Every structure is written in C-alpha cells, then in structure tokens.
Amino acid sequence: MSRQASDGVLVDDAALLDALREHAYLEGDFVLRSGKRSTYYLDKYRFETVPELLEELGARIAARVAEVEPDAVRLAGPELGAVALAAAASLASRLPFLIVRGEAKAYGTANRIEGAYEPGERVVLVEDVVTAGGAAADAVRAVRQAGLECRTAICVIDREEGGADALARIGVRLHPLFRAAQVVKERGTGRPRG
C-alpha cells in the first residue's frame, strides 16, 4: 500500500516500515504489559512523538476506518499511548474522537470516556501496539458500557501474540496497519523472537 502525501511525496509501506524500525524497534530484555518477556520492544512513544510519522499513521488509520467501518461516527483512543494516534486520525478523517481513560477520574465529571457522544453511535477503537489484547479489550468494554457500539479496532502494529483472538472473543475485529513480523527483521527467519 502507498499513499500520496499532501506535499506530493509518495509514502509507501517499505519507507514507513523503515521509519518505524528506526524510531521504535529496541532489542534487549523487556517485560511486556501482558507480563511476557521479549527480546524486542516496539516503543510506541518513539513513533507517536515524531510529527511526520504521526501524521502518516493518522492518515493511514483514517483511510483504514473508511475502508473497514465506513459507518463509524467517532474514533476512540485509550490513554495514554493511543490518544495521539486517535487525534491524528481524527484530523485526517474529520471524525471526532474520544479518550478512554484507564479508570474513571475521581473528580469533576468522574468520566471514563472523555469527549461528546450520543449513545448508540458506532466507534472505532484506535490502538498503537497490540500484544495480548487486554488493554484494547478493556477499552472496548468501557466504550460499550457508555452505550456506544464498537466492533472494529485498528492498530499500528499487531505483535501477533493473541490480541486479535482476544478481541474476536468480544466481537471486535482487529485491523493492523502492520504485523510485528513486518517491522522486525531478524537475520535468517524474518520473524520476531520473544
């Protein structure tokens, strides 16, 4: 897939993958949110804080939303990592977005879902890196508890460690822009370890 950028530069998958690798791929010994250990880590903050990458990812997420969930009227991004991506995709798609807090705040409105919405609206969950899918599934449940419909999630990278299955069990289809095997190039196998 490639996309014509607003400045006329053609942005293709290979160039974007190279940029994601350059900015976000780290090797070492890491504990993931799922509790598993891994020999590599995809640091979402390193690609979400680079304006050119954030803009490109937002445009790709917006295009994917239009393709797979054209009836969506809002996006939703779980705090903290996916908020920048949801905002970038909102700007590109002109769809408003919601912020899904990890838990309801203990002051003011005591909301867990921030932003204006009407019950029954269709929302697409935006995520950064999905591993086991626990955080994404929790965000979907919060959105649904608020009376919104969510059956689609779009992430930048699927680590392919059960997240798509976890979401499928609650009736949500995951659409990754990329899979870990595409981002992580190991000598010989081309597959990620860990």
Characteristic terms for this protein:
194 residues, 7 helices, disordered C terminus, disordered N terminus, globular, two-stranded antiparallel sheet
Write out the strand line-up for the largest beta sheet, numbering strands in chain order. 7-6-5-8-9-10
Radius of gyration: 16 Å
Question: How much of the residues is beta strand, in percent?
Answer: 25-35%
What structural class do the secondary elements suggest?
alpha/beta
Helix content: 25-40%
Largest sheet: 6 strands, mixed
Summarize the helix and strand pattern as letters.
EEHEEHHEHEEEHEHEH
The rounded distance between the terminal residues' Cα atoms is 28 Å
Q: Care to count the β-strands?
A: 10
Total DSSP helices = 7
Which of globular, elongated, flat, extended, rod-shaped describes the shape? globular
Uncertain spans, ≥5 residues at pLDDT below 50? 2-10, 186-194
Oligomer state of the chains in this structure: single chain
Q: What is the averaged pLDDT score? A: 87
